[in-house]
Model the fold of this input.
Amino acid sequence: MINKNPHSIDCATASEWLHSMLDEELPEAERRLLLAHLESCPSCAAAWHELKILERSHARLDSRLLKPPADYFTRLPARIMARLESEKMAAPAILELPARKTRVLWLQKLAGGKARYAVALAAAGAAIFFLVRGRSDAPVTTTAPLQNALRDSLAFAAAEPFRQVPLEEQDVTPPAIVTQPRKEEATTAATAASRRVAVPAAGEWQPGDQPAATAPLTKPAQSEPASDAAIAAAPPESSQLALLAESAESHRPAEKKDLLESESREPAAGAGLLQETPVARSAQFEGVGVAKMAAPGAPAGARSLFAQALRQAQEARDEATRQEIWWRYLQTGPDTAYYNLAAAMLARSLAGTVDSTSSTRQIEQAVKFYRQQEAILAPQLGADTFRREYQRLEGLLHWKKANEGRNRPQ
Amino acid sequence: MPSSADNGRLSYLAPSPEDCAAIEATLAGDRHAFEKLVVKYQRPLYAVLRRLVRQHEDADDLLQECFVRAYRHLGDFDLTRPFYPWLHRIAVNLAITFLRRQAWQRPTSELDIFPSAEEEPNQAVESSEFFLALEQAIRRLPVEQRTVLLLRTREDMSYRAMSKMLGIEIGTVMSRLARAREKLRSALRPFLDARSRKLKTRAAPE
Done:
């Protein structure tokens, strides 16, 4: 096409705009230009015609397939009620987190070396996620942008912490990764770090609480048919998680370090390290099974609990469920070795889902969580990210409340 | 009965006092108040899910899940807002996750896209083939392109609404849509050519 009119458009632009016009998203001025172009360009006009045919056919395709079997809607309410009944679901309620007694300014925290623990922890968590997701999602992530993969998997931005603090510079081995199973060492470096970051009131959370806390996490996994189906459908994924938890507990820090380092450079490649093993293939993919595999011979402790939560979170169909899982996990108390990591997961997820469409309660809960967990989240997420997100949430809450007042009759 | 969704194009429905009462009763422990909500909203939500995931069994699965989720998170629902858009968002999110999983979990079965006899009694063969090819072509799209196409065409979602729901830029939404449609166009080239030939001969018989 030769453009005689300075305001006319070429075929490349036209073919771009055709889609927007089809979607009724093209501004009026552009629309007029495009229509003028179509008048004079047979090939673009043909494309437009075909796109319309396809769109119309696509829309018609639907109307043919929408009818459920007879009776379906008569029976569905009873089926759903039966399911709610059988899952013995308590009346819905908002989960409350145990309040932390001590607050430490994130700026102070950052000044100290403790941020490194957190960074390492974040890195470890991200590595775990990359390992897990890297394989199971491979066909998808090869085409999907990284952004999607990250969103999907709850893997919170890992690349940055990795770059900021290379592992060689760490003065300690990443705490969450070298949790010792022996009882006297049950208080891990991570826990110790988190204690220093925010000391829970004496007697409020004991390491001994952890096995008991396994119960609420195990139960939903067993009682939810949908999640069981998901487990059955994706065994390699689940088993990898267990193996991961296992490997996270290994007594060979050097190897662990290698693993982490390779992960930091090439997230997906590390998946090969934990691929098919006899254990993975023959394992029972239930919450309890995973917990046992994660900690053979050990009492149900921090790592199995974490492995379980991680597995559930990974299989969760939406962010809300993931969040619920992490809320519940965090309720097991700040002495849990993976507490910081779980808190960061939750914070990330909240950041991604809480927006102006969220309810006031949801926003309030998120703000409260950010405020209470500042000492952990600031180093975990990075001071800037934390501050930005916290301010965003607070602003959102402010706006929401102001708006609410305006919308109500009074 | 709600007829439209929170898709960014149609306005929000007004909050319904009935819904509020049912929700409050549910939260107070009356489980059967929830059943009223199920009865009221099952049809539009089923339609949404069916459009997006195609198979009745999958839609059924997700619809149940949707209501279970809604029940579980009812405490988070903001009573000053209309209920249906909230449910719709849960349903669409479930469908999106399902479509993503499906991409690697299940190879596309060539058989299950044939409309069953009860669904499709009087369709001309030629046109049936076209629709079949279209359905197949849509299924073969990369999952992220397919998702935007389905949300756009089947849920009538705006670019903005999709961008928000999927967490991607509007520009990305647009380019994915364009790529998806161009793929469909080339996959269905024979049908489209035949069709335009027919139109031409009808318009200008020689």
